[in-house]
């Protein structure tokens, strides 16, 4: 038998497409599945309406007159205060009143343009990275940005060098401090982590032993312990006369902590690289550093992106622990501001607000990582 | 044959022994290769033939014996090893192209980083070699977008880019679909005709018969028999080679 004409294609039968089918396959495909669907719907029903009521419907939005980018927007005659705000629903004027504290901590108000510029620069950084994607000298552009951005940011925020008035680190706080801790922690720990990961794979016994001991020690200890050690034990080893900044101590502790986690993440990526890649790199005569920098790490790091970002997200969340050693990050501001006699007892609003800010930032990070993954994966298209 | 006797040995292997743990993988290997010679190494799997050629560019360490390649004796010295590796190129069974680099970047890597050529020189040369293996038009693609045969031809072009004196082939066609084997063998035949020294571990007896100056049969870590192609197939002396040939050739003829 032989077929000389190819059959024409046709659409699947009507019973196999459409909304009913979607319902049938996804929500009520079986009795247990249907039961779970309705139980979930019921849970949402008892949770969502009260939350919505507390946050929006019954909440107090009497901000008075607000000036947003030069536009006067009148929410109410006068701003609500703690007394007439009500206790049964959210009192958002409290957040409005304390917004500066949440974002900048005790940073001097007349200098707040400096963190603003740094926020702007950070956003600009992402835009530039996107714009130069196809530019011939993009590596040079990105490298020069990686070098200049931290320096410029540091000068702007800390001041000094005869350029700007000095703002002491104990005045840094709120979201600003959370972001500084997270970004410095991530940026400093990443190269250390890569070196440790390579060290753990090294043929040189001493380096391997040191890397393994370091990683396993740090991973076996909670971050709080490390922060305490950095805060109270580290100064014992150093000259007491040198005034060793509290924030700097915390940053060193966090960077070392995160380095150990990055090391394990990168090691996972390294192990996924086939032996043939090492052999091919050896066979064409590359030396150890060239082999890792040109062949192994680019591939290993690319596979590790989801875990690197996941680990970074954890660090950002863990950065709230610094309130234990007396640094005033965004979470610490909840207690700080609701202890204000005028706004006593508004922790709930504070926690909800901080939660939302964290969620927005962390969810964006996770989306961004997904995009990176897809972009870097182009070469694996078949 | 007369002229070849006058040429000097480019590879000299004497009393080579290698163990993997307790397993004696290579036993007292003695072998020399003259410049321009085409050697085919064959034998059943696990006979040590891949291990042998991987010792030549020090991808495998060995415990006893000497290997001298292009006048350089193989030791642990990293400098020497890299020097040898710039004279000896290797083509792998699984191609081992770098998947994160385009085809042309795969080719220019070693010339730029090991041989200090400029990007432009290296690129020009790379495109010339791609032309030679007939895949010039794929230069900007990534390895995974190419077929197995094309990838292996790229791998051959990559190893040619550093102008090696010796080429090692480690079962270059074993991972390929049958219809792609000939396109890779054609390239190898071209190379053999140009007079480059080659050691090929392969089961392609057609290639061996046609191109090899000598065929080496290995079994259980030893060189069992060594002969020119005509006598190798016509008058195998050892029982093991006769058995091997009978197994491998029944389907061929």
Describe it.
The complex is a heterodimer of chains A (382) and B (253). Chain A has 382 residues and is mostly helical. Chain A has 13 helices and two strands; from the N terminus they run ααββααααααααααα. In chain A, strands 1-2 form a two-stranded antiparallel ribbon. Chain A starts with 18 loop residues before the first helix and ends in a 6-residue tail after the last helix. The model of chain A has no long low-confidence stretch (mean pLDDT 87). Chain B is α/β, with parallel strands linked by helices. Chain B has ten helices and ten strands. Chain B has helices at 2-6, 49-56, 78-87, 103-113, 119-132, 148-160, 178-193, 205-211, 229-234, 239-249; strands at 9-20, 23-34, 38-42, 64-69, 72-73, 88-91, 166-170, 197-201, 214-219, 222-227. In chain B, the strands form two sheets. Chain B has a six-stranded mixed beta sheet, sandwiched between helices. Chain B has a four-stranded antiparallel beta sheet with strand order 2-1-4-5, covered by helices on one side. The radius of gyration of chain B is 18 Å and the shape is globular. The mean pLDDT of chain B is 90. At the A-B interface, helix 10 and helix 11 of A face helix 3 and helix 4 of B.
């Amino acid at each position: 038998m032989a077929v000389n004409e190819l059959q024409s294609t046709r659409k699947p039968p009507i019973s196999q497409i459409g909304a009913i089918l979607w319902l049938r396959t996804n929500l009520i495909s079986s009795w247990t599945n249907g039961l779970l669907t309705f139980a979930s719907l019921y849970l949402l029903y008892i949770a969502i309406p009260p939350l919505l009521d507390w946050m929006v419907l019954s909440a107090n939005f009497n901000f008075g007159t607000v000036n947003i980018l030069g536009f006067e927007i009148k929410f109410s005659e006068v701003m609500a205060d703690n007394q007439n705000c009500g206790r049964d629903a959210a009192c958002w004027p409290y957040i409005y009143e304390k917004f500066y504290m949440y974002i900048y901590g005790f940073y001097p108000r007349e200098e707040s343009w400096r963190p603003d510029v740094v926020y702007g620069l950070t956003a600009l950084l992402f835009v530039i990275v996107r714009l130069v994607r196809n530019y011939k000298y993009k590596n040079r552009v990105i490298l020069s940005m990686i070098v200049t951005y931290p320096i410029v940011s540091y000068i702007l925020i800390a001041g000094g060098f005869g350029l700007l008035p000095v703002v002491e680190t104990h005045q840094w706080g709120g979201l600003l401090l959370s972001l500084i801790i997270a970004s410095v922690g991530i940026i400093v720990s990443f190269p250390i982590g890569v070196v440790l990961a390579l060290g753990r794979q090294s043929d040189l016994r001493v380096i391997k032993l040191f890397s393994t001991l370091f990683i396993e020690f740090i991973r076996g200890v909670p971050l709080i312990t490390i922060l305490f050690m950095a805060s109270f034990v580290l100064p014992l080893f150093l000259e007491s006369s040198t005034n060793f900044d509290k924030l700097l101590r915390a940053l060193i502790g966090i960077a070392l902590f995160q380095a150990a986690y990055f090391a394990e993440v990168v090691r996972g990526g390294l192990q996924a690289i086939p032996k043939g890649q090492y052999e091919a790199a050896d066979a064409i005569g590359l030396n150890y550093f060239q082999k890792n920098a040109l062949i192994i790490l680019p591939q290993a790091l690319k596979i590790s992106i989801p875990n690197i970002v996941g680990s970074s997200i954890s660090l950002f969340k863990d950065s709230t622990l610094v309130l234990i050693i007396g640094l005033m990050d965004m979470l610490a501001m909840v207690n700080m501001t609701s202890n204000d006699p005028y706004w006593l007892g508004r922790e709930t609003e504070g926690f909800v607000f901080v939660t939302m800010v964290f969620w927005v930032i962390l969810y964006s990070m996770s989306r961004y990582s997904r995009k990176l993954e897809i972009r870097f994966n182009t070469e694996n298209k078949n | 044959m007369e002229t070849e006797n006058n040429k000097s040995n480019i590879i000299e292997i004497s009393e080579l022994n290698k163990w993997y743990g307790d397993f004696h993988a290579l036993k007292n290997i003695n072998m020399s290769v003259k410049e321009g010679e085409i050697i085919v190494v064959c034998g059943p799997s696990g006979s040590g033939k891949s291990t042998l050629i991987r010792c030549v560019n020090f991808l495998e360490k060995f415990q006893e014996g000497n290997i001298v390649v292009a006048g350089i004796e193989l030791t642990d010295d990293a400098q020497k090893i890299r020097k040898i590796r710039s004279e000896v190129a290797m083509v792998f069974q699984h191609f081992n192209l770098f998947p994160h680099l385009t085809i042309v970047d795969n080719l220019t890597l070693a010339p730029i980083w090991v041989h200090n050529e400029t990007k432009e020189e290296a690129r020009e040369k790379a495109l010339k070699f791609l032309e030679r293996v007939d895949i010039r038009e794929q230069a900007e693609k990534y390895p995974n977008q190419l077929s197995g045969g094309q990838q292996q031809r790229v791998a051959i072009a990559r190893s040619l880019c550093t102008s090696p004196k010796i080429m090692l082939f480690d079962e270059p066609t074993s991972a390929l679909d049958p219809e792609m084997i000939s396109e890779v063998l054609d390239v190898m035949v071209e190379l053999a005709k140009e007079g480059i020294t080659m050691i090929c571990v392969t089961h392609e007896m057609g290639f061996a018969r046609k191109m090899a100056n000598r065929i080496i049969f290995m079994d259980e870590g030893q060189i069992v028999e060594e002969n020119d192609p005509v006598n190798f197939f016509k008058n195998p002396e050892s029982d093991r080679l006769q058995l091997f040939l009978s197994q491998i050739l029944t389907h061929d003829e």
